[in-house]
UniProtKB/TrEMBL annotation:
InterPro entries: 6Pfruct_kin, 6Phosfructo_kin, His_Pase_superF_clade-1, His_PPase_superfam, P-loop_NTPase, PG/BPGM_mutase_AS. GO terms for biological process: fructose 2,6-bisphosphate metabolic process; fructose metabolic process. This is Putative fructose-6-phosphate. GO terms for cellular component: cytosol. The record marks 459 as: Transition state stabilizer. It holds the Pfam family His_Phos_1. GO terms for molecular function: 6-phosphofructo-2-kinase activity; ATP binding; fructose-2,6-bisphosphate 2-phosphatase activity. The keyword Nucleotide-binding applies. Residues 132-169, 172-254 form the 6-phosphofructo-2-kinase domain. It comes from Culex tarsalis (Encephalitis mosquito). Keywords: ATP-binding, Nucleotide-binding. The keyword Cell cycle does not apply.
């Protein structure tokens, strides 16, 4: 043993001093036992030499391991685990692999604490851009959840998506999830689960479901101001009182709120994309925050929720009075009113608080028109603040502006046939399609929903898009909604539904409604193409005697 060269001594790292000491002590004890049994003449020098060899070997092993790992980070453990290893004297602790919860970076000297762990079965898989979306509604009773859920679904369906509200009593069940899976298999893409989902456990069920199915998941949590809560309770009590007058619905609702408030666990950003809404009809108190919202659909939902919901609303919609172009069967342009159109403007004013109106007649608080003069002339006798909005202008017919359907068939027969084949998506050359128009009118509809008692005087195509929102019409059917001239449409909201009342004002006019012809082929005859074209005059209608400044003109 005296001939062996002891390795050079190196200072043991501070964090491994105790572990080295344990290993050395065990080796010394082993040498002592062996000396006592088989080598009684062994000296202390032999033992010291063996100890030096052991310590040097430990250092050499550590340096070799670090070279192989290229100075890879070494894991540390918490105090309780380290104490257990020290007690057991585990030599394997020197070569322990990095722990998933703790991390020690020897390179930059930074030590991080515990990281939250995620169970493998709950780890979210990356969702494709076009994957379906599950929206989970969260909140206590009477916070405006159902009203907002149906508002979101109505808007998404209006914009061409396929959305549906799934009503649950408190939280989604496995039956609900099964229905959603079948719903998505039918090429639908947005499911809104309207319930309370008060606990994180109930929401975790939905998160796991979406991760397994590779669906997008969005949480929307609702709260409201005290005034809004009282109004919501009053509305709910009035609704249920009509169903059963023997129950104290107000007391039941307040007790339900107290019970559920004790169970409520607010949403955390760690649960996924989250929108929080503080409901109020007052735009100054209505607030919304968002975290992790991604994609066009989720962004559209955010825009819808940003506008306060007014429970009781009334809107008045009307086309302009008959124009000179309507009489001649021409589309587009900026023609003035015909004599019959001027008469309708007077009749509309008497209906809505103008000269000669009844004291109890409705009076709009706001009047919106397009920038075209036929709409502005229609409301000139109606009292109230007027605003001309560019987005309410008629659809741009491009190269077909100012032409009759007969002239379009003669000059552009193929374009005329293509439009009949898909009127919603067809875009006039250098013009617009109904799809473009729907996007243009979106901002007007959202502004309309934030107000009440608004009169909108616009054009046939624009009002078709607006009426499609209130009626829940499929996009492909929007171009065939009948919005006749000289008719007032009154839209009233009932909860999250709308009712449309049609009020003809009995002023004679032409009919501009054209249905889809049976033959939409590009090789069809002229007679087949013009089968459904409405009748019109070949010359302007004779005007009554009036001052030259009031004479109607036609713009070509």
């Amino acid at each position: 043993s005296s001939s062996k060269i002891a390795p050079s001594r190196k200072k043991i790292p501070e964090n491994h001093r105790k572990l080295h000491h344990i290993a050395v002590r065990r080796k010394i004890d082993k040498l002592h036992r062996r000396t006592a049994l088989s080598q009684p003449c062994a000296s202390n020098c032999d033992i010291e030499s063996a100890v030096e060899e052991l310590v040097g070997g430990l250092h050499a092993s550590r340096e070799s391991q670090q070279r192989k790992q290229k100075m890879a980070p070494i894991a540390t453990t918490n105090d309780s685990k380290q104490a257990q290893l020290l007690q057991a004297g585990e030599e394997a602790a020197l070569n322990r692999r990095p722990d998933a919860n703790y991390y020690s970076n020897h390179k930059n000297g930074l030590n991080e604490g515990p990281r939250p762990t995620v169970k493998p079965e709950l780890a979210a898989k990356p969702c494709p851009i076009g994957a379906p979306l599950v929206v989970t509604i969260v909140g206590l009773p009477c916070r405006g959840k159902s009203l907002a859920a149906h508002k979101v679904a109505r808007h998404l369906n209006w914009r061409g998506h396929s959305a549906k509200v799934f009503n649950v009593e408190s939280a989604a069940t496995t039956d609900t999830l099964r229905e959603i899976s079948l719903f998505f298999k039918e090429s639908n893409n947005v499911a809104i689960i309207d319930g309370m989902h008060l606990t994180r456990q109930s929401r975790q069920l939905l998160t796991t479901f979406c991760n397994e199915k590779v669906f997008h998941h969005l949480l929307i949590e609702f709260s409201c101001t005290d005034k809004c809560l009282r109004e919501n309770i009053d509305d709910t009590v009035a609704f249920y009182h009509n169903l059963d007058q023997n129950i104290d619905w107000e007391r039941r609702l307040r007790e339900s709120n107290e019970v559920h408030s004790a169970l409520f666990e607010p949403c955390s950003p760690l649960e996924g994309p989250l929108i929080t809404v503080n409901n109020s009809e007052d735009v100054r108190l209505h607030s919304i925050t968002a975290r992790g919202v991604l994609g066009a659909i989720q962004t559209a939902i955010l825009g819808v929720l940003a506008i306060p919901v007014i429970r009781h609303r009334t809107f008045y919609l009307s086309r302009h009075g008959e124009s000179e172009y309507n009489v001649l069967g021409r589309i587009g342009g900026d023609a003035d009113l015909s004599p019959r159109g001027m008469k309708y403007a007077e009749r509309l004013a008497r209906q809505l608080g103008g000269p000669g109106s009844a004291p109890d007649c409705p009076k709009p608080k706001l009047i919106w028109t397009s920038e075209l003069r036929r709409t502005i002339r229609t409301v000139q006798n109606i009292p109230g603040p007027r605003t001309a909005i560019k987005d309410l202008n008629e659809i741009n017919a491009g190269i077909c502006e100012g032409l009759t359907y007969e002239e379009i068939q003669e000059r552009f027969p193929q374009e005329f046939a293509w439009r009949d084949q898909d009127k919603f998506k067809y875009r006039y050359p250098h013009g617009e399609s109904y799809l473009d128009l729907l996007q243009r009118v979106d901002s007007v509809v959202q502004a309309l929903l934030a107000n009440t008692d608004v009169l909108v005087v616009s054009h046939q195509a624009v009002l078709r898009c607006i009426m499609a929102y209130f009626k829940g019409t499929r996009p492909d059917d929007v171009p065939y909604i009948n919005v006749p001239l000289h008719t007032l449409l009154i839209v009233r909201s009932y909860g999250y539904d709308f009712e449309v009342e049609t009020v003809p004002l009995k002023v004679e006019c032409v009919d501009t409604y054209r249905i889809q012809p049976k033959n939409c082929s590009t090789t069809r005859t002229t007679a087949d193409a013009l089968t459904t074209v409405p009748a019109h005059f070949d010359a302007p209608i004779a005007q009554p005697t009036m001052a030259p400044s009031q004479a109607a003109t036609t713009i070509s």
